[in-house]
Structure formats: C-alpha cells, structure tokens
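Anyone able to model this chain together with DP6?
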Amino acid sequence: MSIVSATAVAYPNIAFIKYWGDVDSSLHIPANGSISMNLAELTTRTTVSFTQPLSQDEFTLNGKPTIGKAFERVSILLNRVRQLANISSFANVESHNNFPMAAGIASSASGFAALSLAASHAAGLVLDEKDLSRLARIGSGSACRSIPGGFVEWQSGANDNDSYAFSIASPSHWDLVDCITIVSQEEKIISSSIGHSLAHTSMLQLARIADAPRRLSLCGEAILERDFDQFAEVVQLDSNLMHAVMITSTPSLLYWQPATVSVMHAVQSWRTEGIPVCYTIDAGPNIHVLCLGAEVERIVERLYKLPGVIRVVTAHPGGPAALENTQNLNK
Ligand code: DP6
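re: yes, here you go
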C-alpha cells in the first residue's frame, strides 16, 4: 500500500424527489429513485490519514473527538475501504462543516461523500464516480447523490452494484436557488435512519412508491427543460407525499412546526400571485424554498417577514465532490 493522507470537499444536497424507505437498510438500497441538487455554498472538508499506527479509527468532527453512532457509521465505511484496498490500518478522520450542525441542514450527505473520496484515495484506491457513489451510499443513502455534480439522479437499483447516482445536468445548467428557511435550530427527534425503517408502516407508502417513476421522470424532464411550473408541481407533490407517509406511520412522524406551515401557506400564495417559487421539506421543521436566481432577493425579503423565521441561507447548484490534496508519505 502506498501510504497517503487525502483531503476532499463535498456539498450537501436537497432532494426534489425524495428517498424515503429502504428495501435493504444496511446497504441503503432505496425503495424508490430520487433526484437532488448539490448546494454550493455549504461544504464539508474531510481529511483521512492512514499514516500513524493507531489501535482504532479516530474521528474528529468540527474539532471535537466524536464517538457513538456517528463514529460507528464512519468506521463501517472505513471497513469497506480497507476491504477494497486490502489493508488493515486504522485511520484518523478530521471533518469540518462550514455550516452549523444546528442549522437544520443534514451534514451526513456531504460528510460521507467527502469521507468516501478522501478515504479511498488515502488507501491508494482509484474509484470511478459510480463506485464512489456506491461507497458513499454505505455511509448514508443520500450521500451517494453528493458525489456527482449539479443536478443528480440516484437510480434505486436492486442491489449494491446498481444502486448509485449520476449527474443529469451540470451546476450551470439552471439558475435555481435553495432559500433554506430555518424555523428551528433544535436537533431532530427522529433520525432519517429510523424514519426510513418506519415508512412501510404507513398504508400510503405503497402508493407513493408505485407512482415514484412518474414523478422522477416529470422532475428530470422539468430540470432538463428548465420548466419551473412543471418542476414546482412535482417537487411540492413529492414532498407532500413523503410527509403524508411520515405523518401516517406508526409511530407518527410530524416534523412540521407552526412556522413550517406558515411558510408553506405563504409560498403557495406567492405562486398564486404568479411568482415562480415552491417548497420542499426534509425530515425536520426547516423548509427549503426554491426559486430562480432573479427572484432570490424578493423571496428572501418576504421570508424574513414571516412569523417564526430565524434565518434564511441561500444556496446555488454545487459541483461534484472533489479531491483537494493528497500526500504520499512514502515519496
Ligand atoms: C428526507 O440519506 O439522511 O432527506 O441513509 O439513513 O443516512 P440515511 O438517510 P438519509 O435520508 C434522507 C431523507 C430525506 C430525503 C432525501 O434526501 O432524499
């Protein structure tokens, strides 16, 4: 093995067609395909080194040594890298997000995408985009969508080999902006991992899955044709369907807060006024308000006037996960 240390950067992504429910929870093989956009202004930067003799993996997140669930997930991914590279050394992992953990923006997608790229390079592997996406998926399902750049589709596939993401359009293809509207800074009570495992308890999940290929193709087409109306219809429908499943699961998962609903109503009425805008919501109370670049200023101004809005963070389409630095200590 060529012993190296590597640093990679990756962006989180916002799903327009959501991943909710697995057919294989350990490999994160999803019940349906999904589509997302990387978020350029938000980054995770991760350095992996196999350079020191360690008795176990070490993981530091934003300067804090981390143990528990997050550490276990990192180790599972590192085990896969060790297996592929046929090595046994433990790794030191240092990861930094440029956005606060409490901002309601999931860092697991960018975190595991950056980790996959940095760890595979540090272990001497050269993986193509498909294999990197498959590797990132082991850490967190949505992380496979943070490997390719711009607008991305994750084909559900049926097994570890054919479940991966690819780019459907570059970041410069469409000037779409995600106005991430923070209405709560509290940690979410039920993680997405637990949520995925509850999806099948809702009688609506089967109907949601059955119609997913239609929504996926409508959304992909709307992005390729830059058709905001078609995009808005299908994105809001898909988010509402996922939340209908969440709310009707056992136990019921109601992620919305009163301020979430206020923003939903406002966005709906702005669309009725003729402004091209729509919303999508993940497994938490914060709400992603999507609009075209030309509308950002007036949308953000309006959002700040709504009750319960704490902060709005804007993000444009982001590129692929990228290697920043590698160091071969043998040379
Ligand atoms: C609601 O990828 O975070 O954001 O694979 O358990 O880490 P794990 O789940 P995760 O689930 C994302 C759920 C979602 C929708 C989406 O991003 O598609």
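DSSP finds nine helices and 16 strands in the chain.
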